[in-house]
Structures are given as structure tokens and as C-alpha cells.
Design goal:
Shape: globular
Radius of gyration: 25 Å
Structural class: alpha+beta
Number of strands: 19
Largest sheet: 6 strands, antiparallel
């Protein structure tokens, strides 16, 4: 039920949008050379020249100039002319209607908006700008100008799919500002004026379309961050001060609202936690917020450090959408490394910086070339329960187990999966039990439902049911009741007991990590009279992982699926133990970690 306040807000918002559609904002720009209060990027580029990072950037730039764009799990080849409103995966292209009339959630009419929008975030233009700094090759400048002019022509203000999401407007604005920061004055004066006018219009759009009610999660965070940065960028203009103030206020408020006291992000997704932490980190660098903000920022980093574990790899618990605040290239499970490297500098935590190369993607550009010289620390991990997230992290040497005993996320729990009491296990680089990922949002409803369903997680499924009822691609109904019954940890063992109640049944799971190499899992299922089907599911990181599981009689290996980056899926092994009969049913399994051969 919408409140009178929300109705009034939305009415004012839509009237303003309609007015701006009819009369796009104008600004007079003359002799204006904005800069952000960030270190000299040319010096950073000089220090990073001839590093693996610079070679990666130069190679990516070569692809991009050929109009072969690495996007999510795809390589999009557009040919000479880029159709900015086209989903190149399906071939569906939308028109230039008023942005509110674009059916972007209808894949049949608009294609997969994620594929369309990822290209229109223009993060690849930052690669071209960095490549120019590394090589001096002006072909990179020419390509940036040509693509931007093409985009201006194909996306008039407030018309088309690329204005339909305020978050996407925010990402694009941040990319443009970052390109300007790297090389803006190198481009022709007349083009710069046109570009800055278009960027200013992005700010006007964001000011009126902050997602206070539509998606007050990482959408609102990204929009507020971009508005704050735009305010700093246009500080000499009347709206600049207001944008800076409003964006900063929203960022501070959302730090309190979106981040739990244990440091976890409230959407119950590890991937979105990285998104949020990156946004809060950049804001901290630019705004120098107060100590309570910084304290919570540190707790966010502590949570990410814990779930990355000794492998320093991100488990995909909850949704992952394949994107990133900056540099969305490379293995997604390693995105948290650059975030932790940046946090180690901002928060003066040397124990988080385990490889100085992690500084190159992000921290060196945000904080200056001096951070490149930082020395690696010694990573330390300990077993810990994050009570707000319901995430238990069990660690011994290189072995880590993560048990998800937390609730679904807020509102419709749009980025949560039905994965309660699931477990992820890995030892060093060996993945034993995994979370298969996300794969898609709206591109294919069948696969969207499968990857977020209970059957796609290493937990128990009762009577073939998900733990909650599907209610659309970003909504769950009838969510389960989850309770952590006990948590104990010491040098010899970790023990978690928790239960999940749904559909009249109770699934109680006991996970005991007998350090250093045995994990015992006991499942007890209770429920109403009559026969029931109970499946104990184990999603393997590789076929070889089966040898490390000790399972009840009748365990069978079947083909399942895994997605390591949004938009891509591939077969992966699943071990299933099935029981049929009256409840209660008790099932036991264990993971016997095998020492790695050197």
C-alpha cells in the first residue's frame, strides 16, 4: 500500500519528468575545465606502465576499437555501427518512446535489458582512456569521441531504454566523469562542450529520479554516489552544490539503513555486498565522512574479508549480476580482491592487502600512484558467525566452509535465493561444494527460476518445493522462518545448528567442522503425516570433488548447471541423495578434505 507521501513524491516526479521531456535542460558552458579532487591519473599511468594490468588494458582497448565488447559472459560484436538500444544477444531493439513507456522487463519486447544496459554503462570508454595514457595512441581518443557522438544521436534526452533506469544513468555518468578525469582536455573544445551539456542532463535526471521507493537498495546507492560526484564536478554551477549535498546525505542515510551492524549488506547477496562496499569506499574517498560512517565501512570490509576466505574468492550467495562499479573485466569471483586492497588503504588495514597487484584496478586510480608501493601483509582468517546476515564462516588453515542460515532480503527479497541452510566448501583453490550462481534475470524465466531455486543449492529440498514461492523475477512470497539455534567455535571445532520452516515442514541442519579437515553435516526433516520426498543436494565444484564426500547409500551423480558470470552457464555435477517415506527423516554426510599434493 503506497502512502500519501509516496504518491505525492511520485506525482511530482512524473510531472517533472514530463516537463523535462518536453523541454530538455540547457546549460551555458564556456571555459569550464572541471576536475575531481583525486590524484593525477597521468602519474598513476606512468607507475603502472608495463605491468600486467596495463597490458590487459591495452589488449581490451584493441578489442573495443574493433567493436568487440566483453560484456558479462558474452563478447558482443556490433560491427561498424553500434545500435545502442539493441540487445545483441537476442537481436531485439527498442525504439525512442518516452522512457517510462519502454517495457524493459519484457524480454520478448525489449530483449535482455542487462545486456543492453551493460554496453551503455560506457565502462569500456574508461579502458580506452587508460590505454591512451599507457600508449599515447590517439586512436583511443578518436574512438571515445566517435562512440559518444553516436550515443548522443541515438539516445535523445528522456527517450529510449537507456533512460529507463536511473541506476544506469548513474553508471554512465560516473564513466563519463572518469574518462574526463583521465583525458578530458585532450578532446576537441566543441566536442567537450557538447559532452559536458549531456553530462549535466544526466545530473538533472538523477536529481529527479532517485530510487527512494522503486529500488531503495544498491540502485539508490549508485544514483546518490553519482549525484554527489556530479555535484563536485559541476561545483561552479548553481545545481552543483545541491547535488553534492543531496547525494552525500543519501549516502550517509543508506549506510545506516542498508548495512547491518555485523557489516553485511541487507540484500543477502555477497556480490551486491561488493557493489555496495565499492560505492561507499569511493564516497569515503571523496567526501571524508564522519567516524560512524567509517566504522561501519570497516565492518563491511571485515565481512567481505571473511567470506572471501583464504582463497580470496567470492562465493556467489544470492544474486550476482556480473557488473561492477569500475573495471567489470576478468573473473567475477576475484572482484572482491581490488575492493579489499582499496579498503586496506582507506582504512589503514595492512592485514587485508595480500597482493599489491590488487591495487592496480581501483585503488591506484582513486588514491594515487603512491599506493602502488605498499607491501603485502599476512592474511588472517578466523571462524565467525555474522548474526545479522546469518552467515557462519568456518576456517582452518586453507579450508573454509560457509553456511547460509540467514533470512531472505527485505521487501520482495529480489536478490535473494531460496538457499537457506546451504553450504559452500573449498580448500585453497579447490572448490568442493559451490553455489551455482545466477545466470540471468529476465532473459529466460525458466533459468531465472532454476538458478535461484532451492534445487540449485547444497541444501535439502522437500517434496520438490522451493523454500519460498516464486512471485516474479525479483520477488518471493511465503518466505521461510529461519532460526539459528546455536553457534560454537574454538581451536578444535566449529558447530552451527539452525532450522528452516516452510510448507509445514522443518529442516534442521547441524554442521560441525572437526578441524582441520572433516565437516560433518546432519539433516533432520520433520513435517505432516504421509509420505514425502526428501532430497539432499550437493553441488560440486568439479567431478573430483565427489571423492571427498562421504554420503548415504544411494547417492547418484546427475548433470546440473553452473554460471560463473552472468549470461553464461555450463554443465556441472550434482550429487543427490533421495529418500521417500514418512517423516521424520534423518540424513548424514561428511566432507573429508584431502591434503593437496605439492
Amino acid at each position: 500500500m503506497r502512502t500519501p507521501r509516496e504518491i505525492a513524491f511520485r506525482l511530482k516526479q512524473e510531472l517533472t519528468n514530463a516537463y523535462l521531456y518536453a523541454r530538455p535542460p540547457k546549460i551555458e558552458i564556456d571555459n569550464f575545465t572541471p576536475r575531481l579532487p583525486l590524484p593525477d591519473p597521468a602519474e598513476t599511468a606512468r607507475k603502472l606502465a608495463r605491468t600486467p594490468f596495463s597490458q590487459e588494458v591495452i589488449a581490451l582497448a584493441s578489442q573495443i576499437k574493433d567493436h568487440r565488447f566483453p560484456i558479462l559472459g558474452l563478447t558482443v560484436e556490433t560491427g561498424p555501427e553500434i545500435h545502442w538500444r539493441r540487445d545483441y544477444a537476442s537481436g531485439v531493439e527498442t525504439g525512442l518512446d518516452y522512457f517510462r513507456l519502454i517495457p524493459y522487463l519484457d524480454a520478448a519486447r525489449a530483449g535482455d535489458h542487462k545486456v543492453t544496459w551493460e554496453l551503455n554503462r560506457h565502462q569500456h570508454l574508461v579502458i580506452l582512456a587508460q590505454a591512451y595514457l599507457f600508449t599515447g595512441d590517439r586512436a583511443n581518443l578518436d574512438e571515445i569521441q566517435a562512440q559518444l557522438e553516436s550515443w548522443f544521436d541515438g539516445n535523445p534526452y528522456h527517450r529510449g531504454i537507456n533512460w529507463a533506469s536511473a541506476l544506469e544513468v548513474a553508471f554512465r555518468a560516473l564513466s563519463w566523469i572518469w574518462v574526463w578525469q583521465l583525458l578530458g582536455p585532450e578532446l576537441p573544445p566543441d566536442f567537450r562542450v557538447h559532452w559536458l551539456r549531456e553530462l549535466y542532463r544526466h545530473g538533472v535526471h538523477l536529481q529527479n529520479n532517485l530510487s527512494y521507493y522503486f529500488s531503495p537498495n544498491t540502485h539508490l546507492l549508485g544514483e546518490a554516489l553519482a549525484l554527489h560526484v556530479l555535484g563536485l564536478f559541476f561545483a561552479d554551477f548553481p545545481k552543483g552544490g545541491w547535488w553534492e549535498q543531496l547525494g552525500g546525505q543519501v549516502m550517509r542515510e543508506q549506510m545506516e539503513r542498508q548495512v547491518h551492524n555485523d557489516g553485511s549488506h541487507f540484500e543477502q547477496s555477497t556480490y551486491y555486498h561488493v557493489y555496495a562496499l565499492d560505492m561507499f569506499l569511493l564516497h569515503a574517498i571523496l567526501a571524508k565522512p564522519d567516524q560512524p560512517y567509517m566504522d561501519k565501512l570497516e565492518r563491511m570490509a571485515e565481512y567481505l574479508h571473511a567470506v572471501l576466505g583464504p582463497a580470496r574468492a567470492l562465493p556467489f550467495i544470492g544474486d550476482d549480476d556480473g557488473g561492477r562499479l569500475f573495471h567489470p573485466y576478468g573473473r567475477r569471483d576475484r572482484f572482491g580482491r581490488a575492493t579489499m586492497a582499496t579498503a586496506s588503504v582507506v582504512l589503514d588495514r595492512g592485514d587485508w592487502l595480500l597482493d599489491p597487484l590488487d591495487l592496480h584496478e581501483q585503488a591506484a586510480w582513486w588514491l594515487g600512484a603512491g599506493v602502488i608501493q605498499k607491501n603485502a601483509g599476512e592474511g588472517k582468517w578466523e571462524s565467525r558467525l555474522f548474526s545479522d546476515a546469518g552467515i557462519a564462516v568456518m576456517v582452518s588453515a586453507e579450508t573454509q566452509a560457509i553456511v547460509d542460515a540467514g533470512p531472505f532480503g527485505p521487501w520482495g527479497a529480489g536478490h535473494s535465493h531460496a538457499d537457506t541452510l546451504s553450504i559452500v566448501v573449498r580448500s585453497g583453490d579447490d572448490e568442493i561444494l559451490i553455489d551455482p550462481g545466477t545466470y540471468t534475470y529476465v532473459g529466460d524465466p525458466k533459468w531465472r527460476d532454476w538458478f535461484r531455486g532451492t534445487g540449485a543449492h547444497s541444501t535439502v529440498r522437500i517434496d520438490g518445493l522451493d523454500q519460498a514461492a516464486l512471485a516474479g523475477p525479483f520477488r518471493w512470497a511465503n518466505r521461510p522462518e529461519v532460526t539459528i539455534l546455536s553457534w560454537k567455535t574454538n581451536a578444535e571445532r566449529d558447530l552451527l545448528e539452525a532450522e528452516c520452516r516452510y510448507a509445514g515442514c522443518v529442516h534442521r541442519r547441524r554442521v560441525e567442522f572437526q578441524k582441520p579437515n572433516v565437516i560433518v553435516i546432519v539433516d533432520e526433516i520433520e513435517g505432516p503425516p504421509g509420505d514425502h520426498d526428501v532430497e539432499q543436494l550437493w553441488h560440486l565444484g568439479s567431478p573430483n570433488a565427489r571423492s571427498q564426500l562421504v554420503l548415504p547409500e544411494g547417492a547418484e551423480i546427475i548433470e546440473s548447471w553452473r554460471s560463473t558470470v552472468f549470461g553464461e552457464k555450463h554443465p556441472a555435477p550434482l550429487v543427490r541423495v533421495r529418500r521417500h517415506g514418512a517423516l521424520p527423516i534423518r540424513m548424514e554426510a561428511s566432507v573429508q578434505i584431502q591434503p593437496r599434493t605439492k
